[in-house]
Specification:
The protein is α/β, with parallel strands linked by helices. It has a domain of about 230 residues: Vaccinia Virus protein VP39 (Rossmann fold, 3-Layer(aba) Sandwich). It contains 11 helices and 13 strands. The strands form 3 sheets. Strands 3-2-1-4-5-7-6 form a 7-stranded mixed beta sheet. A 4-stranded antiparallel beta sheet has the order 11-10-12-13, with no helix packed on it. Helix 1 links the parallel strand 1 and strand 2.
Length: about 425
């Protein structure tokens, strides 16, 4: 049995399925559980902090854990950093068989902080049975000191352990998502998998195999299949579910723009942050279900001067938001708060104007596009309304990264074609 704590909507689980294995996921969120059920993944809906460990004793070969990151993430208030000494104390106590969680939790500024200590409760109980054979854990970079504490404890228990920061883009994920990773094994040397990609492609040499260039958003979304790598546009509606019709006349504009070929990508554009006064009038345009116009058949709302612009993805609404061109990987995708919207914005092409009424509207990324950028399959069965789907996608582990981390422990080769891009 592979035990998956804080299993979410199935990033680890989908990777295991691709590798020919399965897990038992423990998850509390209702919509994540519904997504997992639709994907055929075994799930126990429960509070990981309250569920007993004894049902898994004597059965667990692997343990996976991705505790909630909201207390630690730069997208939140980061009170986990304030609570970090308490979390370290909880890990040390649980490793020694002492459960001091109640008193430590009472002192925490964010009640979610202590969830990062929960894997140690499971590890200590399973250790009494000589289990698990291997451990893989993932969190935001600020949790690395905690993972190093785990690694030291696991080494004392006879494991080989490694903790460090990995960039998902180095493993074929179209996103420069940096994460703190813990790897441990009783049967093999724990070390990170060799990167398969690099910011600039590297040819094979006498010193080792080559590495492909980072995967761009355009590649992942299938925009390279045409000469118009641009986002699907919808407008109107609100943050919940339900239909969002195109504004009057824009459906014809979509068809006319695609047929006229007025959009011409400009890969050499230099990305930059758009200040508020540079945003177009459509900055607040919102998207809806894309059943009629899926991400694999992108279509823009354009004007006669559309060839002077290039799409880029802005990671949130804050002044220091990351802006990446479509021919680059995305920045880290995170959702769950209005300020964390990811939006396609128009960047001026070389020689184009800085500001013009003819600029294409800014458009919120669709859930399907975000899902593909996280390397989920195009038909992954996300449950819930838009907000619920976005939260699940942002919190998930990219399955392609997960597969690279899991394959050595399962002793199976990872075929890159198992995570085909939308082409």
């Amino acid at each position: 049995m592979i035990l998956d704590l804080f299993a979410g909507p199935g990033g680890w689980s989908h990777a295991l399925t691709v590798l020919g294995a399965h897990d038992v996921g423990l998850e509390w969120d209702e919509w994540a559980c519904k997504t997992r059920a639709a994907a055929g993944q075994l799930t126990i809906r429960t509070d990981v902090a309250r569920y007993p460990v004894w049902p898994f004793a004597g059965k667990a070969t692997g343990l996976i854990a991705s505790p909630p990151c909201q207390a630690w993430s730069a997208a939140g208030r980061r009170l986990g950093l304030v609570d970090q000494p308490l979390v370290h104390q909880a890990v040390a106590d649980l490793a020694a068989g002492r459960d001091t969680r109640a008193e430590l939790l009472a002192a925490c500024r964010d009640t979610r902080s202590l969830l990062a200590a929960e894997p140690m409760r499971y590890l200590h109980a399973l250790h009494q049975h000589g289990e698990p054979e291997w451990v893989v854990m993932e969190e935001v970079p600020d949790v690395l000191p905690l993972w190093r504490q785990y690694a030291a404890i696991l080494r004392a228990w006879g494991y080989s352990a490694w903790a460090g920061i990995l960039n998902a883009a180095d493993y074929g994920v179209p996103q420069t998502r940096r994460r703190a990773i813990l790897l441990a094994s009783r049967s093999r040397a724990a070390e990170p998998p060799p990167p398969t990609h690099a910011q600039h492609g590297e040819p094979e040499s006498l010193f080792g195999p080559g590495r492909a260039p980072w995967v761009s958003m355009a590649q992942a979304l299938g925009w390279g299949a045409t000469d118009r790598p641009v986002p699907t546009v919808c407008a109107g509606g609100g943050p919940g579910g339900g239909p969002e019709p195109f504004p009057s006349g824009s459906r014809k504009a979509l068809v006319d723009a695609r047929n006229s070929g007025r959009w011409h990508p400009q890969p050499e554009v230099t990305s930059r942050v758009l200040e508020p006064h540079q945003r177009g009038a459509g900055w607040t345009a919102r998207h809806g279900p894309r059943a009629a116009t899926p991400a694999l058949t992108p279509a823009p709302t354009l004007t006669g001067k559309a060839g002077q612009w290039k799409w880029a993805l802005r990671s949130n609404n804050q002044a220091n938001a990351t802006v990446r061109r479509a021919d680059e990987p995305a920045g880290t995708l995170f959702f769950g708060h209005r300020a964390n919207e990811c939006v396609w914005v128009a960047e001026p092409a070389p020689g184009g104007p800085i500001e013009t009424p003819a600029a294409p509207q800014a458009v919120r990324i669709t859930a399907q596009e975000a899902s593909l950028l996280q390397t989920f399959p195009a038909d992954y069965p996300w449950a819930g309304n838009k907000g619920q789907r976005f939260c699940q996608i942002g919190n998930a582990v990219p399955p392609r990264l997960a597969a690279h981390l899991l394959a050595p422990h399962l002793r199976v080769p990872l075929d890159p074609n198992d995570f085909t891009l939308a082409a």
